């Protein structure tokens, strides 16, 4: 049993050292115009999702999806978010696709994530992803309205829907 544990420790140490050497010698690609390795993708997703889920446990959406809130959220989204995340009037994803990871397109489908998650990501951003934190540019109220709007893109009142579909 002692030899088995020593072997595990040795193997783990070797793997960590090999990883360090590969990274330190610049052998691991970091360019955004190539798909990342499976392990990088999975580790990044796990880390991001785990951290965000932990952070949003204390958040509670204070905003109700009234027509006025949806209209204000839509206007804020068009102004601040549609350039990367798309809208019916802005379907050109060239810029969004040049980011790593690619900026998700919410323009037609909206979001299935809880509004709290969208609020947190919009307020704080995601490091090394191209997603800035808007907490210093928008009020919490404005960010909540964007989050509520995205949760309701498929169920907009007619007058908000017509504004949403209209060109900028």
Structural account:
The model has no long low-confidence stretch (mean pLDDT 91). Helix 3 (67-80) crosses helix 7 (140-151) and helix 6 crosses helix 7 (140-151). The protein contains 8 helices and no strands. The chain has 168 residues and is mainly α. The protein starts with a helix and ends with a helix. Helices cover 55% and strands 0% of the residues. The chain has 2 domains: 1-28; 58-165, Cytochrome c-like domain (Cytochrome Bc1 Complex, Chain D, domain 2, Orthogonal Bundle). It has helices at residues 2-24, 38-55, 67-80, 82-85, 94-97, 115-124, 140-151, 158-165.
Question: How does the SSE layout of this entry go?
Answer:
Layout (H helix, E strand, L loop, with lengths): L1 H23 L13 H18 L11 H14 L1 H4 L8 H4 L17 H10 L15 H12 L6 H8 L3
Helix pairs in contact: 3-7, 6-7
Number of helices: 8
The CATH superfamily of the largest domain is identified as: Cytochrome c-like domain
CATH topology of the largest domain: Cytochrome Bc1 Complex, Chain D, domain 2
Distance between the termini: 69 Å
CATH architecture of the largest domain: Orthogonal Bundle
> Uncertain runs with pLDDT below 50, 5 residues or more?
none
Overall average residue pLDDT = 91
- What is the CATH class name of the largest domain? Mainly Alpha
Largest sheet: none
Helix content: 55-70%
* Beta-strand fraction estimate: under 5%
Can you tell me the number of structural domains?
A: 2
Question: How many strand units?
Answer: 0
Principal-axes geometry comes out as elongated
Q: Over all CA atoms, what is the radius of gyration?
A: 21 Å
Topology pattern, helix = H, strand = E: HHHHHHHH
Structure classification: mainly alpha
């Amino acid at each position: 049993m002692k030899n088995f544990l020593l072997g595990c420790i040795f193997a783990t140490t070797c793997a960590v050292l090999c990883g360090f050497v590969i990274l330190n010698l610049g052998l691991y690609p970091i360019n955004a115009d190539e798909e990342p390795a499976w392990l990088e993708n999975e580790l990044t997703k796990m880390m991001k999702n785990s951290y965000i889920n932990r952070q949003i446990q204390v958040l509670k959406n204070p905003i109700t999806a009234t027509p006025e809130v949806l209209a204000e959220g839509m206007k804020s989204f068009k102004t601040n978010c549609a350039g990367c995340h798309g809208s019916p009037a802005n379907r050109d994803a060239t810029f969004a696709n040049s980011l790593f990871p690619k900026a998700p397109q919410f323009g037609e489908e909206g979001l299935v994530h809880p509004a709290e998650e969208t609020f947190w990501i919009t307020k704080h951003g995601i490091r090394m992803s191209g997603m800035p934190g808007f907490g210093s540019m928008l009020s919490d109220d404005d960010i909540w309205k964007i989050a509520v709007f995205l949760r309701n893109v498929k169920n907009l009142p007619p007058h908000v829907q017509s504004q949403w579909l209209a060109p900028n």
